[in-house]
Amino acid sequence: MPAYRLAGLKMERGDMRVAMISTMTGVIGIAVIATAANAAKPRDTERAPLLTAVTQCRAVADPAARLACFDRSVAALDTAATNKAVVVIDQQQVRDVRRSLFGVSLPDTGLFGNGNDLPRIETTLASASVDDSGRWSFVLTDGARWAQTDDYMIARRPRANDKVIIKRAALGSFRLSVGGQPGVKAKRQN
User: Fold this and answer.
1) What are the residue boundaries of the structural domains of the chain, listed by start?
2) What tens digit of pLDDT does each residue of 30-41 get?
3) Under a CB-based contact definition with an 8 Å cutoff, are residues 142 and 102 in contact?
4) Which of 1, 112, 167, 172 could serve as 120's disulfide partner, Cβ 3.0–4.6 Å?
């Protein structure tokens, strides 16, 4: 069996494979740790340049110069907001958007959370219909459309204004319960 030298050590062929695998595993482990560390950094630490310009005006000592700085930077921020280059939303608006997007698969941009921290929603049914295969389609009062994906029967026909509870389930699926009945698997359509 041929012998190899690695960092001054004599190694047999099988030992060489173990050393290479160990080295590759170490490199992959470091890459995973580095990726996790970058992902753990908060995204909101970097402010938009227009907002930074407004906040830096507070440091201007001369009152007239500070007012002029505020006027310039606020006008630029207002123009950007009017042109939709900058959008400012409050926490309630974030909650409303997260709720309206419940069940929609979107990439995590950091703006609305990762989506998994909203485990369920409660809403009201606007209408429901059944197709030829016996599966239900649901339209909620907010306009969201959900479709049944399993073959479970719903005992009582869903009616408008019935209470709807949609919960996260295993592996990214959802369970929809209407009118207090047992839940069925469902998928968001829009």
Assistant:
1) 3-40, 47-82, 120-188
2) 333 333 444 444
3) no
4) 167
